[in-house]
Specification:
heterotrimer, A mainly alpha (224), B mainly alpha (226), C alpha/beta (243), A: 224 residues, mainly alpha, MetI-like fold, 10 helices, C: 243 residues, alpha/beta, 6-stranded mixed beta sheet, 4-stranded antiparallel beta sheet, 38% helix
Chain lengths: 224, 226, 243
C-alpha cells in the first residue's frame, strides 16, 4: 500500500511537478480556446454548404466530412507534422495541431450543425421569407438559433471531445498538460505527475460530463 | 523533372511502397484485432453496467455513474499512458497492445453505458406496467419488452461513438503497438521517405470509410418511428 | 368474494391518495368505478394487482393474499387481467406476439400452443385477421382490443379496465365497448374505471363513486344515476351528464 502511494500519489514529487503540470494546463486551455472556435467556424461553413440544394456543392462537402470522420486525428496530425517537411513545409507542432483540429473537429461540428439545420421545418424559412427577410437574414435570425438549440447536447459533447483531443499535442511536442506531465514523469521516474494530469482533466471536464449526461438522457427520452 | 514528378517521387515512391507494404498490411491486421477486441469488450461491459443500473440499487448506481463520468472525462491517451507507464510501478506490466485495448474498452464502456441507459429509460413506464400486469418478471420484462425497444433507439448513437473510439487505436503507436500508424512511422524513419505514411493513411481510409458511410445509412434506417 | 380489498391506504410521499377504501367484488359481477380525476380510482385499481403497493390494508384476489411476501406475484398476476388507458402494446412485436408473450414466458406454453391460444383470443376481440400486424399499423380501437386479447388469453379470473376508452377517438369507442360487453356476457368478473356512463347504465351491476381517496357511495346504476344520496355524487353526475 505504502509503495502504491509512493508510486502514484507521491506528495514530494507532486509539489515539485506542480508548476510544470500547471504550465501544461494553461497551454491546454489556450489550445482549446483556439481550436473550438476554429472548428465551429469550419463546421458552420460545411453545414451551410452541405445544406445547399445544389448537388455539386453538397456531395463534395459530404464526402469531405466523411473523409475526416474516417481519419484518425492522430494520423492527420502525424501526417502534417512528419510528412509535410518532405514537401519543404515545416510547421511547428502547435500549427499542426491547429490545422489538424480545424479539419477533424470541423467535420464533426459540421455534421452536427447540418442535422440541426435540417431539423428546422421548412415553414420557418417560408414564414421568414414571406415577411421580406433575405436568405442570409433568415439563416442568421431564424434557422441557426433554433438549429443550435436543437443540437446543443451534441455540440457540447463534441466540444468535450475536442478538449480531450488536445492531449494529442503531446505526440508532436506541444507542451500541453499530458506532455508536461510525461516530461515530469520521465525526469522523476514516478507516475505521480501523470496521475496529477488525469485528476486535472477530470476536475475541469467533470462538470461538463454531468451536464451532458442530463441533457442526453432528456433528449433520448423525449424521442421514446 | 517537373514539380509533380518530384512530389510523386517523394510521397508515392513505388519502390519504398512495395518494400513496406507487408509491414503496413501487418499493421492493418493488428489494428483490426485491437478494434474487434475493444468493440466486443467495451459494448459488453457497457451493456452489463446499464443492466445493473436498471436494478436501481442506489450505492451501486452512484458507483456506476462515477466510473462512467471518469472515463468520459479522461482523454483516452492519458488513460493509455497511465496504464502503460504507471501500472508497472504497481507490479503489473501490460504490453502496449493490452494497455491500448483496456483503455479504449473502458472509454467505450462508459459511453455505451450512457447510451444503453438512456435507451432503457426512454421506454415508457406503461410498457413495464403492461408486461408486469401479465405476470412477466422484472428480468423477463427487461429482456423481452424493454431491451428490444431500447436497443433499436441506441443503434445510431452507438455506431457513431464506436467508430470514433475505434479510430483511437492509432493512439497505440504512442506505446509501441505495431498497428498501422506505428508501422508506418517506423517505416518512414527507416526509409527517410513519407510514402509509408501515405500508405498508412490510405489503410485507415480503407478500413474506416466504409464504416462511416454505413453509419450514415444506419442513422436513417433506424430512425425511430412509432 | 373473488376480490376483497380492506382498508386500503396509499401515500405518495406527502400525498394521501387512498384513505381507507374497502371493496368487495363477487364472481361474475361488473363493478363500475366513477369519480373526478385525482379521486384515487386508478390507484385503487393498480393496488389490486400490486402495480402500486398499498401503504397499508389487505388485498385478496381469488383467495390469494396479494401483499404477502410469500406470494409469487408474477403467477398471481396471471389471474388478473389489466387493460390500460394508453394500450401499452409492445411496439416491436406483432399483435399475436403481444398476446402470446406472457403465455410462453409466464404460463410456460410452447410457442405452438401459445399461438393457438393467442389466435383464439384475437378471434374473441374480432381481430383474427390482424394477428401479424404491428401496433403502429392498427387503429386505436384495434390496439385496445389487442390489449384486451393480451389479458384474456391468460384466462384471468378478474379483469381490470383503467379508462380503456379515454384515449380513443369517439368513433372507435364503440368497438371496444362491444368487446367488453361480450366479455361481460361470458361471465367475466370486471372492475372498470371509466366515464362511459351509457355503458355503466346498460352493463354494470354496481356503480361505485369515489372522491378524494374514499368511496362516497355505491349501488345499482339506476340508484346512483337517478337518485344519488350524496351531494358530491349529485354534483359529479350532473357535470358528466351535461357533456
Amino acid at each position: 500500500m505504502e509503495e502504491m502511494i509512493q508510486a502514484f500519489f507521491n506528495a514530494d514529487i507532486a509539489r515539485a511537478a506542480m508548476p510544470i503540470v500547471l504550465a501544461g494546463l494553461l497551454n491546454t486551455l489556450l489550445m482549446s480556446l483556439l481550436v473550438v472556435p476554429l472548428g465551429l467556424m469550419g463546421g458552420l461553413a460545411l453545414a451551410l454548404g452541405a445544406h445547399s440544394r445544389h448537388p455539386l456543392v453538397r456531395w463534395p462537402l459530404m464526402a469531405w466530412v466523411d473523409f475526416f470522420r474516417a481519419f484518425p486525428p492522430l494520423v492527420l496530425l502525424v501526417l502534417l507534422f512528419a510528412g509535410l517537411p518532405f514537401a519543404g513545409l515545416e510547421l511547428g507542432g502547435f500549427a499542426c495541431v491547429a490545422i489538424a483540429f480545424f479539419l477533424n473537429t470541423g467535420a464533426y461540428y459540421g455534421e452536427i450543425l447540418r442535422a440541426g439545420i435540417e431539423s428546422i421545418p421548412h415553414g420557418q424559412v417560408e414564414a421568414a421569407r414571406s415577411t421580406g427577410l433575405s436568405r442570409l437574414q433568415t439563416t442568421t435570425y431564424i434557422v441557426l438559433p433554433q438549429a443550435v438549440r436543437n443540437v446543443l447536447p451534441d455540440l457540447l459533447s463534441n466540444t468535450l471531445e475536442v478538449v480531450k483531443l488536445t492531449s494529442l499535442g503531446s505526440v508532436v511536442a506541444v507542451p500541453e498538460l499530458l506532455y508536461q506531465a510525461r516530461q515530469a514523469q520521465s525526469v522523476t521516474y514516478n507516475a505521480t505527475p501523470i496521475v496529477m494530469a488525469a485528476v486535472i482533466y477530470f476536475l475541469i471536464l467533470w462538470p461538463l460530463v454531468r451536464l451532458l449526461s442530463r441533457l442526453e438522457n432528456r433528449a433520448l427520452a423525449g424521442r421514446g | 523533372m517537373t514539380g509533380w514528378d518530384r512530389f510523386a517521387e517523394t510521397f508515392f515512391n513505388a519502390k519504398v511502397m512495395a518494400k513496406y507494404l507487408p509491414d503496413i498490411l501487418y499493421g492493418m491486421v493488428v489494428t483490426i484485432e485491437l478494434a474487434v477486441l475493444i468493440i466486443l469488450s467495451g459494448l459488453f461491459a457497457g451493456l452489463v453496467l446499464a443492466l445493473i443500473r436498471s436494478l436501481g440499487v442506489r450505492p451501486l448506481n452512484w458507483l456506476i455513474i462515477f466510473i462512467v463520468d471518469l472515463f468520459r472525462s479522461l482523454p483516452p491517451l492519458v488513460i493509455i499512458v497511465l496504464i502503460y507507464f504507471g501500472l508497472p510501478a504497481a507490479g503489473a506490466s501490460p504490453s502496449g497492445f493490452v494497455s491500448t485495448w483496456i483503455s479504449l474498452a473502458l472509454v467505450l464502456m462508459a459511453f455505451a453505458e450512457e447510451i444503453f441507459w438512456a435507451g432503457i429509460t426512454s421506454v415508457p413506464r406503461g410498457q413495464w406496467e403492461a408486461a408486469r400486469s401479465t405476470g412477466l418478471s422484472f428480468v423477463q420484462t427487461l429482456l423481452e419488452v424493454v431491451l428490444p425497444q431500447a436497443l433499436r433507439l441506441t443503434i445510431a448513437p452507438l455506431t457513431n461513438r464506436t467508430i470514433a473510439i475505434t479510430k483511437g487505436t492509432a493512439l497505440g503507436t504512442v506505446v509501441a503497438v505495431t498497428e498501422i500508424l506505428g508501422q508506418a512511422s517506423s517505416a518512414m524513419s527507416n526509409s527517410y521517405n513519407p510514402s509509408p505514411l501515405m500508405m498508412g493513411a490510405t489503410a485507415y481510409l480503407v478500413l474506416f470509410l466504409p464504416v462511416v458511410v454505413a453509419a450514415r445509412w444506419i442513422e436513417t434506417r433506424f430512425a425511430w418511428k412509432r | 368474494m373473488i376480490v376483497s380489498a380492506k382498508d386500503i391506504h396509499k401515500h405518495f410521499g406527502a400525498l394521501h391518495v387512498l384513505k381507507g377504501v374497502d371493496l368487495d367484488v363477487a364472481e361474475r359481477e361488473l363493478v363500475f368505478v366513477i369519480g373526478p380525476s385525482g379521486s384515487g380510482k386508478s390507484t385503487l385499481l393498480r393496488c389490486l394487482n400490486r402495480l402500486e403497493r398499498p401503504t397499508s390494508g389487505s388485498v385478496r384476489v381469488d383467495g390469494i393474499d396479494m401483499l404477502a411476501p410469500s406470494t409469487d406475484i408474477n403467477h398471481a398476476r396471471q389471474r388478473i387481467g389489466m387493460v390500460f388507458q394508453s394500450f401499452n402494446l409492445y411496439p416491436h412485436m406483432t399483435a399475436l406476439g403481444n398476446v402470446t408473450l406472457a403465455l410462453r414466458k409466464v404460463a410456460g406454453k410452447s410457442r405452438a400452443e401459445a399461438d393457438v391460444l393467442g389466435q383464439a383470443a384475437l378471434e374473441r376481440v374480432g381481430l383474427a385477421d390482424r394477428a401479424s400486424h404491428r401496433p403502429a399499423e392498427l387503429s386505436g380501437g384495434q390496439q385496445q382490443r389487442v390489449a384486451i386479447a393480451r389479458a384474456i388469453a391468460l384466462e384471468p379470473r378478474v379483469m381490470l379496465f383503467d379508462e380503456p376508452t379515454s384515449a380513443l377517438d369517439p368513433e372507435l369507442v364503440g368497438s371496444v365497448l362491444a368487446v367488453m360487453r361480450s366479455l361481460r356476457e361470458s361471465g367475466m368478473t370486471m372492475i372498470v374505471v371509466s366515464h362511459e356512463m351509457g355503458f355503466a347504465r346498460a352493463a354494470a351491476d354496481r356503480v361505485v363513486f369515489m372522491d378524494d381517496g374514499l368511496i362516497v357511495e355505491q349501488g345499482p346504476p339506476a340508484a346512483i344515476f337517478e337518485h344519488p344520496t350524496h351531494e358530491r355524487t349529485r354534483a359529479f353526475i350532473g357535470q358528466i351528464q351535461r357533456h
